[in-house]
Amino acid sequence: MRxxxxxxxxxxxxxxxxxxxxxxxxxxxxxxxxxxxxxKMVCRSDADGSRTFELLVSRAADRSENVVExxxxxxxxxxxxxxxxxxxxxxxxxxxxxxxxxxxxxFGRGITISYKAGEAEQSADRDKRRHLLCAVRLADGRTGVxxxxxxxxxxxxxxxxxxxxxxxxxxxxxxNPFFNRFPRSRVLKMYRLAPEELRKELAGARRLERQGxxxxxxxxxxxxxxxx
Length: 228
Ligand SMILES: [Zn+2]
Hints:
Bound molecules: zinc ion
Shape: elongated
Number of domains: 2
Number of helices: 6
Number of strands: 9
CATH topology of the largest domain: Zincin-like
Structural class: alpha+beta
CATH class of the largest domain: Alpha Beta
Distance between the termini: 59 Å
Mean pLDDT: 89
């Protein structure tokens, strides 16, 4: 079959109530003739922070109804994760996989991850936004980031210094869209990231330097995020 917009929308409604507890708002729908993907979830962010989602399904090839349905489900999992801003390690990270496995098991589906070049880039929110981050190493050696709400920087800065379980905290400014996936916190909340991920994603970030109640942007960090 070659799906139409009406068909995609009908499937979306059906799966939303069946598999997602009707917790997804209806996005925009589009069918395309792309050969580079089966389906794609696109998220656009406006300057005011509001987001528009669009579910794209390709009808470039004649596919079985099962494949089209699983494509819609696959994109709906992306949508759910984006919509609720659930941090995951990658486009098809552990959160994606566990939702996929759950739906496959409960509803006898065959959703797969067939990685298409560039899909990770396309499905994620790639807008450049300012992130105020604290790269953190805990006393037990675990590492991660705290993503500060803009209005809470000084409070969180103090809290990091006072928190005994944190052995090192390095405050940084980054525009890397990788960090778009983490909700900004008003409280101390660390998202775990491995040291090599931190090094990779924070390359080029600038150090934040605080004097009293003023913070200024300092030099780019060198290779190592944490001083050793
Ligand atoms: Zn995907």
